[in-house]
Structure formats: structure tokens, C-alpha cells
Write a structure and sequence with these properties.
about 350 residues; alpha/beta; Arc Repressor Mutant, subunit A; Rossmann fold; 2 domains; eight-stranded mixed β-sheet; globular; binds S-adenosylmethionine; S-adenosyl-L-methionine; transferase; WH-like_DNA-bd_sf; COMT_dimerisation
């Protein structure tokens, strides 16, 4: 009887720890954003060797009364693998920090820098949407973003140039990494194409990298007028403003990178049927998006997929899809066949044929 109640107490305490841990998970992301705001990854990088805490503190533009708190900020970020303690020592001020692979990606000048990701994902406009999550369940708004900001994401971006620039920068950094990887590892996807339209192509980062590797390929970046309006065309890249729900420029191939996960099935069917009209019978649509559940054994990847699915629901009324859901969508839009090539990261390439 006694041991039974001890078990129950242990279970309760474990449940309490589990709940506390999950309620407090935002502390990881806010601490990371704080470190990026304070420029900590770049300061450690520029030091060129393991950086003692005392030197790090001396390099930061912070109020003298706050220097004693930096060790604790660094401790949580070391725990979450963004920094590494070079020589573990009892004396806090002698602790020396180096970057990990994850914090190297937050450096300003890293070619695939993700420095805008925390700035965008933790922007008050986005965070306020999360505060409206439960209210949204009780009203008719399409997304918590609507409830928080009085309009949908794309209208908001069109009216707020600074927010729009931050979003486009965050997307462009993702595209730099994905495009280099796709061009290197999945060259065959683009071989033999003559004209590629990148629908919802943002500021054109993806096609810039593709067209460097395929100089014979003509590319069109098609996006909303406020996104492409001021961009200068080059010999191989044209920018066209428009609405993909109205019509899409004709091409032998169309790319949709991180577009369909922004929309519900009904809107995706409209986009896909406009794509089908825009390509010839020998053309194809190249979807670069997530296929959920492909690598269930990878817990961190699965968690990230689920996080993204929630972000799509809260922000855009969109969703991430598993292979069955993709197949159903593509066949409902009238396409006859598709192939999926997973990449090593979160995204897959789905080549879709009429
Ligand atoms: C998630 S972003 C993806 C950007 C880019 N493909 C990438 O992966 O970096 C979605 C893009 O769709 C564009 N978009 C939204 N609604 C659109 C519409 N009705 N017609 C054309 N583009 C649209 C947005 O402006 C934005 O650039």
C-alpha cells in the first residue's frame, strides 16, 4: 500500500515536471532571440578562439548592472546546444565558449544565415496570434492571425513594408540553403527545362541560384505586386506581379516552393488547377514542401514538422501534409502521376505530371 502511494507520488511529480517543462519551452526560443539581438554568435565568432565569459561580457553593449546575468543566458543556450563550453570549470568567469553548428547558422555573414528566423517567428505580430489561439476556436475568423491583427497575413504584409521585408528576408535565407542543396543533389529535376515560373517565388532567391547552374534556363518570378514590384529583371530572370488565384504565366515547368502549405485544400486545388492550365502536356509542376511522417524515427524532425503544421494553421489557415494527403490533393486537381524525392532536411521535392 505504502509503495503504491510512493509510486503515485512519483508519477504526480513526474507529470508536474513534464507540464512545467512544456509550459516553459518558450524560454528556449526567447533566450535564443535575445542572444541574436545582443549579437553574441558574431562576437564569439570574431574572437577567433574559445571566448572566456569575462571577455564576452566586456564585448557586449549592455548596462553594467546586467553583466552578472549573461552566464545564465549562456547556460540555457549551452544546454540547448547553441554554444559549447570549451573547458568546463567551476569558475563562471573562466568558462570559455565556442559556437556549435546551430549557432554558426545564426552568424550575420554565414551564406545560409538564419538570423532573421527568430526575428520573424517571434515578432510581436506573430506572437500576438498565439495569444488569440483559444479565442479563435470560439469565433469565425479563418486564423488566429486574423483575430489578432484584424486581417489575413498577406494583406497585413502588403500594408506593413517593414514586416513584409522581414518576412521576405526570412524566406530568402531558407531558399539560399534549399536551392544550393537542390541544385547540387537533385540536378535532374531542372535538366532539359527551358522556361521555369517560380509561383510565389518571393524576391527570387531560389531562381537566382538555379539559373546560375542552368544558364540556358529562362525564369519568371511570379508573386504579389508589392513583393516583386521594385525588382530589376536580368538577362534570364523576369519578375511578374499578379495573383496565382487568377492566372499563372505559361511555362514548361512551374515551381511551388513552400506555397501549398500556406493554404487549405480548397485554395490549393485552385492554385494547382491554374498551374495545370499554365503548363503544356509535357510540362511538370515542381513542388518543394514538407511531406510529413517520412522519417518518424527522427524525433527532432518529427517535432519540427508538427511545429510547422501549427504555424501554418495559426498564421495562414494552411497545413503540412503526409504523402496520402498530397496524393489525394494532386489527383483531385487532375494530375496523373507524381514522384517524391526526400532531401536530407525538412523538405521534399514532389514532381507532378499532367
Ligand atoms: C511562404 S512564402 C514562399 C516564398 C518562396 N517561394 C520561398 O520559398 O522562399 C509564400 C509566397 O507566396 C506569395 N503569395 C501569397 N499570395 C499570393 C498570390 N495570391 N499570388 C501570388 N503569390 C502569392 C507571397 O507573397 C510569398 O512570397
Amino acid at each position: 500500500m505504502e509503495s503504491h502511494s510512493e509510486d503515485s507520488a512519483a508519477k504526480l511529480l513526474r507529470a508536474q515536471t513534464h507540464t512545467g517543462n512544456h509550459v516553459l519551452k518558450f524560454i528556449y526560443s526567447m533566450s535564443l532571440k535575445c542572444a541574436v539581438d545582443l549579437n553574441i554568435p558574431d562576437i564569439i565568432h570574431e574572437y577567433g578562439k574559445p571566448m572566456p565569459l569575462s571577455k564576452l561580457i566586456a564585448s557586449l553593449k549592455i548596462h553594467p548592472s546586467k553583466t552578472c546575468f549573461i552566464y545564465r543566458l549562456m547556460r540555457i543556450l549551452t544546454h540547448s546546444d547553441f554554444f559549447y563550453e570549451h573547458d568546463v570549470t567551476e569558475n563562471e568567469l573562466e568558462v570559455r565558449y565556442v559556437l556549435t553548428d546551430a549557432s554558426k547558422l545564426l552568424l550575420k555573414d554565414h551564406p545560409f544565415s538564419l538570423k532573421y528566423l527568430p526575428q520573424f517567428a517571434l515578432h510581436p505580430v506573430i506572437i500576438n496570434s498565439w495569444f488569440q489561439f483559444s479565442t479563435w476556436f470560439t469565433n469565425e475568423d479563418p486564423t488566429p492571425f486574423h483575430t489578432a491583427n484584424g486581417m489575413g497575413f498577406w494583406d497585413f504584409a502588403a500594408h506593413e513594408p517593414k514586416f513584409n521585408d522581414l518576412f521576405n528576408e526570412a524566406m530568402a535565407t531558407d531558399s539560399r540553403l534549399v536551392s544550393s542543396m537542390v541544385v547540387e543533389k537533385c540536378k535532374s529535376v531542372f535538366e532539359g527545362l527551358e522556361l521555369l515560373v517560380d509561383v510565389g517565388g518571393g524576391t527570387g532567391t531560389m531562381v537566382e541560384v538555379i539559373s546560375e547552374s542552368f544558364p540556358q534556363l529562362k525564369c519568371v518570378v511570379f508573386d504579389l505586386p508589392h513583393v516583386v514590384g521594385d525588382l530589376q529583371e536580368t538577362e534570364n530572370i523576369k519578375y511578374v506581379g499578379g495573383d496565382m488565384f487568377e492566372a499563372i504565366p505559361h511555362a514548361d515547368s512551374i515551381m511551388l516552393k513552400l506555397i501549398l502549405h500556406d493554404w487549405n485544400n480548397e485554395k490549393c486545388l485552385k492554385i494547382l488547377s491554374n498551374c495545370k492550365e499554365a503548363i503544356s502536356s509535357k510540362g511538370k509542376v515542381i513542388i518543394i514542401d514538407m511531406v510529413m511522417g517520412n522519417k518518424k524515427e527522427d524525433r527532432e524532425l518529427t517535432e519540427t514538422e508538427i511545429f510547422f503544421d501549427m504555424v501554418m494553421m495559426i498564421t495562414f489557415n494552411g497545413r503540412e501534409r503526409n504523402e496520402k494527403e498530397w496524393a489525394s490533393l494532386l489527383f483531385s486537381a487532375g494530375f496523373s502521376n507524381y514522384t517524391i524525392t526526400p532531401t536530407q532536411g525538412l523538405l521534399s521535392i514532389i514532381e507532378v505530371y499532367p
